[in-house]
Structure formats: structure tokens, C-alpha cells
Specification:
Length: 75
Amino acid sequence: MNLRASLSQAKSLNIFEISGTYEAKIDPKTGAFVWIQVMVGQPTPSITWQLSNPRVSIRSPWVFNVAIPRSLANP
């Protein structure tokens, strides 16, 4: 599985936890999975594994509108 994480994408899934046995390559620059290889014991038509704790990057610019109470705006 190749996640194709890219610094040019607006958002990307970088890393997550996987149940079971696997090998993965992690990009040292981004900390994201580059590829994942899942270990399968016997030939089988399908496998099931659980992904948890996803980490998603959302690129900037970010705009935050924060209302400041008058009592704090003019001390």
C-alpha cells in the first residue's frame, strides 16, 4: 500500500496504528508512511486489519477569527 503523502497536497493521511504484523518505510523528512507491507501467513482471498489513531496534516494558510472581549481589548 502506497499512501503517496505529499507536501504539496492540501491534506494527507500521514501515519496511523495498524493491528497485526507489518513492515513500513517512514519518510524521515515528513514522518509519514511511504509504504506498508502487511504480513499474511497463508494464501487467502482477503485480509482484515484495523487502522487506528490517524494523523492527518492540513496545510496552511489557516485563518482563525477570535473574538476578544472588550474588557481584555482595552485594559
